[in-house]
Hints:
The complex is a heterodimer. In chain A, 38% of the residues lie in helices and 14% in strands. Chain A is of the alpha+beta class. Chain A starts with a strand and ends with a helix. Chain B has three domains: 49-206, Aldehyde oxidase/xanthine dehydrogenase, molybdopterin binding domain (Aldehyde Oxidoreductase, domain 4, 2-Layer Sandwich); 236-299 and 358-444, 2-Layer Sandwich (Aldehyde Oxidoreductase, domain 4); 318-352 and 448-731, Aldehyde oxidase/xanthine dehydrogenase, molybdopterin binding domain (Aldehyde Oxidoreductase, domain 4). Mean pLDDT of chain B is 92; it is low at 1-46 and 48-52. Chains A and B meet through helix 1, helix 2, helix 3, helix 4 and helix 5 of A and helix 5 and helix 17 of B.
Amino acid sequence: MATLNINGKRMDFDVEEDTPLLWILREHAGLTGTKYGCGVAQCGACTVHVDGVAVRSCSLPVGAVTSDQTIVTIEGLGAEKPHPVQQAWAELDVAQCGYCQPGMIMAASSLLAQNPHPTEDVIREQISNICRCGTYTRVLAGVKLAAERMATNHG
Amino acid sequence: MTSQFRGETPTGAMPRLSRRGFLASAGTAAGAFTLGFSFPLPAREVAQTATGASMPEVNAWVVIRPDEAVIIRIARAEMGQGSLTGLAQLIAEELDCDWDKVRFELVKPGENRRRGRVWRDQSTGGSRAIRGSQEYVRTGGATARMMLVQAAALGWDVKPEDCTVAKGVITHRPSGRSTTYGAVAAAANRIAPPATVTLKDPKDWTIAGKPLKRLDTADKLNGSLVYGMDISMPGMLVAVPKACPVHGGKLASFDAAAVAGMRGVKHVLRVDDETVAVVADTFWRAKTALDALPIVWNEGPAAAVSSATIAEMLREGLSADTPYIGNKAGDAKGMLAKSGRIIEADYSYPYQNHAPMEVLSATVRWTPERCDAWAPTQVAEAALDAVAVAAGLPAESCEVHTMRIGGSFGRRLVTDYVRMAVLIAKQIPGTPVKMMWTREEDMAQGRFHPVTQCRLRASLDGAGNVEALHMRISGQSIMAYARPSVMTANGDPFIFQGLMPDGAEMAIGYTIPNLLIDHAMRNPHIRPGAWRGVNLNQNAVYLECFIDELAHAAGADPLVFRRKLMVNHPKHLAVLEAAAKGIGWGTGTAPGVHRGLAQIMGFGSYVAAAAEVSVSDGRVKIHRIVAATDPGYVVNPQQVEAQIAGSFAYGLSAMLYGECTVKDGRIEQQNFDTYSVLRLDEMPVVEVIAVPSGGFWGGVGEPTIAVAAPAVLNAIFAATGKRVRNLPLKNAALRKVQA
Lengths: 155, 739
């Protein structure tokens, strides 16, 4: 059994403790926006926030997550209104196939939460998710745009 | 038809499926996420409104709802390349509708077949989605416009030529009366289509040719887009397969009892003579059991093959006799035999995996009467045939529910995984089964970029002009494996991409008086496939790096040297000049920064790249790329820019890291930890120069891939004096291999 706080909801799961969080989200909680890409924490398609920090959920056993930790997925990130990163992504038409983008957006939003004014080098280093379509230049522009918007909005 | 109920899917809710229903996903301009749950309709020319009310289409391409929503049907696959939006722009342009009202629907191949292939070819490869259908989709849009105008004119009892259209509003000029597409769409359905239509001159375009945003973005940003991997249905099981890791090897036996008691495991199945699958209630439980399943393979003789034996096999082909000539002028061998100044080099290009982010999957429900597959595929019609054959049912009793795809790059031109999913589901009648591959299976069972070597020999005259060039390619044919029916008596007609003597598709850009380009086919057992750019990739490396070698041997500037060879190839030269000008060729660079050039023609377009790199402590840094392309026409400039920038991420991944090696007959790399790809930290700035010259329609998705590697390799030579002739660069001494 595992009890998790996902997108503000407390949910119970009858699962093996070594099941990666990714598969709890996708197959037990019905939150398929978090993607499987590699299963070995390489590609970042499975990125979610645990207590506000970007985590690669494919390699995090659910038994290592406690019920008082807060999990946010792509479905929860902009549930009330689109996150500035999602807005920037829409504005710049960042996505191509889109499969990696939930992970990219979760990584970018976590980065900006911790470092509201990242330099380009920091963005390039910190957003290490894989995109095979090659949206990287627009991802970079999207993070910069979101950072500007967040700075403006927060005065 | 591709009819659907539309509406928001609550966050976190899984799509549900009625027993006979089918699911399709579509996006809207407004961004509402839509899922369709509908029943196959006897009539094919009826769409449904948001409330489920039936409504006639204007024609196969266009449905207009009473609320003015314009639904455009898309027959080609969308896998990120953006042609969905481009095709909609072309139709909307001729339709003269309001772009803000445009939505899309994906066409299903069974529907297409039932309607006499009214949507024509659905296969999506060879950078053909737009160029291969632009004329008839524009005609479809124009035809719909004329029918809508005619319907309005009939209603008013006026002449249609006295009516004008703007943004879906029809106005009768003499009287000033107006109506809307939504108001006359039902009547337009009963109008006979015009016998002839005149398409707009592209210079008059207001929707096509503009940098409009994609139609299919919104549901990619909030996690609501249902990819093949994300399907869920009541009672659905998940299958995870494993095939013999040595291609061509067989499944000897497996011990199902060893995993039968594991939680969630429902079935352990022989899929075909080389594949076993575990079927469980979830992916994770199926995968866990598959990992624990004792399997015995009969690997066969290919188990003795390694990268070294493959390289030896290809090396023999560099000097063997061959009957297969792709391009010939004068007497290259004769000239080389008597010339005093020979330049010679051997190059090689490795196996590479497509590695799309979404690994292969297909969901199938089989009954003795019917088979439905929800399958991301680039070849919907071929997938339908594969489903029917595997299901043992007539194609009319099957359907492939097309889906948007999480990257593909050519991998889903093959329907092996669709067939496999049907063979699994057929053993569990009535139960929907989602077959999902692991990344490791995707790496092991790829359809790999073929492996080739190339020997180039050239002679220069006293003035540094190229007298003769012999280019011998030795290596693997994709078509000999994938499509034997297209093979000619001598070999694979696709092997000489970018090197053909002429033609509108793949012509070489140089005139060399004595030229011989030939191919010795050597086919290892590793299964090859069309990999974004296909044979253009290695051919561009071989040709463009060697031309650079010749320029340096002649003591000439690589741009000046090429110009002399390109006098008869003005379109090739124009993009090269544009890229060179863009990078500032001939002007100074920052300290330590060096430049390289490359050009090629492929998939009907002319492309070139110029790169700036520096090399220090054995590490290469790619600072900047300028890419120029002439695809004839540009339908969406910002999406062309996205495709070309993305081409460098893909092409430079291949050049820097892309290599699948073979040991004991199997591919060694199993995941992104050993099959590295380029990430944001290494992505160079890419400046895109589109120079559409009109008069022809070329492709965009693939050609630029091919110039990424040679432009950078030539810049590396400029920086280091070292020629890297064997890809990937990670194996070259000047770059330390990443741990």
